[in-house]
């Protein structure tokens, strides 16, 4: 009920302002005012700036996925029983989640110059760790 009323309001606003570039049947959901676009860009820039500060006070060994996984690999090689008893394979997704999310904040799958997930450094590091783990198990 809300959506048709909202669309009717937008249609009436377009008619009153004399906008002729809208084609009936096309979505008007993408019609943003310059003010809305500016506010969105400012908000996006603030989020990106804040995301850069998240790990600025963290030691380099603990904010780089590759280095973290190397520490787990060393643990597995030196103390396999302890590693297995700690259920590390279940813990890693939760441990790496915040690091990956920070790296994905600026990723937009709809951009034309898209970096594929498989090409991202964190993905390759996890893939290498998984391959090394599978090799050691077999």
Automatic annotation (TrEMBL):
Belongs to the GCF family. GO terms for biological process: mRNA splicing, via spliceosome. It comes from Neopipo cinnamomea. One of its GO terms (cellular component) is nucleus. GO terms for molecular function: DNA binding. It comes from the Eukaryota. The gene is Gcfc2_1. Keywords: Nucleus. Its main location: nucleus. This is GCFC2 factor. Residues 66-128 form the GCF C-terminal domain. Residues 1-35 are annotated as: Disordered. It is found in: Nucleus.
């Amino acid at each position: 009920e809300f959506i048709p009323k909202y669309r009717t309001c937008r249609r009436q606003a377009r008619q009153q302002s004399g906008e002729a570039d809208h084609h009936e049947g096309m979505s008007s959901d993408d019609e943003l005012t310059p003010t809305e676009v500016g506010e969105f860009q400012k908000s996006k820039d603030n989020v990106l700036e804040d995301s850069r500060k998240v790990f600025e006070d963290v030691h380099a060994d603990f904010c780089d996925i590759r280095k973290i996984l190397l520490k787990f690999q060393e643990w597995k090689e030196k103390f396999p029983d302890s590693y297995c008893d700690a259920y590390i394979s279940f813990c890693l997704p939760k441990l790496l989640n915040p690091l990956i999310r920070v790296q994905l904040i600026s990723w937009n799958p709809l951009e034309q110059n898209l970096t594929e997930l498989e090409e991202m450094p964190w993905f390759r590091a996890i893939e290498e760790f998984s391959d090394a783990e599978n090799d050691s198990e077999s």
